[in-house]
Amino acid sequence: MSYVWETDNLVKEFTLSGGLFKPKQTVHAVQGVSLYQSPGETLGIVGESGCGKSTFGYTLMGLYQATSGSIYMNGRHINPYVDRESVHPVIQMVFQNPYASLNPRLTVNAILEEPLELDPKYTPRDRVIRVKEVLDQVGLNMSFGERYAHELSGGQRQRIGIARALIMEPQCIICDEPISALDVSIQSQVVNMLEDMQEEMGLTYLFIAHDLSVVKHISDRIGVMYLGKMVELADSYELVARSLHPYTKSLISAIPIADPIKARASKRIVLQGDVPSPLNPPTGCRFRTRCPYADECCAQKEPEWREVEKGHYVACHHVEKINA
């Protein structure tokens, strides 16, 4: 089967200069992530802030140069950081902050036409037609084209950000926490719009967020990251109903429950301690410093990423004992 994109043991590290008398330090942002995405699928990635999920998206998009590992798009091995022309027709991105991701000096029309100017097949007239099409797709009329970003509300700006991602008709859109900066009343509108567009255009979404309740609603599969590592991956319903990794269990227990009776009966799993620094991650299993099941084996050996059931992957030494 041909995947839209695939990563094999992807690693992204950042080197920090230590100063005059301090040695250089390495931030281990993404460590050995192997994922794939089928056409028309929504893959959600969740985890705490700083776990590396946005860095993974930026590296896949080519905004960061991968430290090591391989990236494939439509079965072809490429380096997105170098071969941008091969990436942009396949993957585009919606950024988290709609206030910072739009050029304040350009009108909406100019923002949306800018990528089309690089494609010789679009004449000036074709560009105007295409801009009107994408504005219609995100629920805005042509009058918005003459406005600047500061004249728009947060929800309208994010719609423009989505329109910019759609303008080149990509196969996949990386949504990097696209609703976290919006009011709650606007969040559902944007999520519903993304779902409608996916149904109409057959889009593929990589949906990155820290709100598991939103991700489980929109995603077909969900991957859970912790401190740069993927710890669990499964079908959306399977992951929520029968999570196997202790970290995933804690995240799911934090999802608010509308029914007060069920909410009182549910047990909240509170993790002890803080997330370790990616500058100096723990040896062995990175979650062991906060895991109630950790033992000497977890400190000495890194858990293997394995398929315990069909389509359900987990990285934990004691998954069978925990879920017995």
**Average pLDDT taken over every residue:** 90
Task: Report the major sheet.
Answer: 8 strands, mixed
User: How far apart are the first and last residues' alpha carbons, in Å?
Assistant: 34 Å
- Low-confidence segments, given as residue ranges, are none
Strand-pairing-aware structural class: alpha/beta
The share of residues in helices is 25-40%
Order of helices and strands: EEEHEEHEHHHEHEHEEHHHHEEH
Brief description of this entry?
The chain has 324 residues and is α/β, with parallel strands linked by helices.
Account of the protein in words:
By secondary structure, this protein is an alpha/beta fold. Helix content is 31%, strand content 23%. It contains twelve helices and twelve strands. The protein has helices at 53-61, 84-87, 108-113, 124-137, 154-166, 184-201, 212-218, 236-241, 246-253, 260-265, 296-300, 319-322, and strands spanning 5-16, 25-37, 42-46, 68-73, 76-78, 91-94, 172-176, 204-208, 221-226, 229-235, 305-309, 312-315. The strands form two sheets. It has an eight-stranded mixed β-sheet, with helices on both faces. It has a four-stranded antiparallel β-sheet with strand order 2-1-4-5, covered by helices on one side. Strand 7, helix 6 (184-201) and strand 8 (204-208) form a beta-alpha-beta unit. Helix 4 (124-137) crosses helix 5 (154-166). The longest helix has 18 residues, at 184-201.
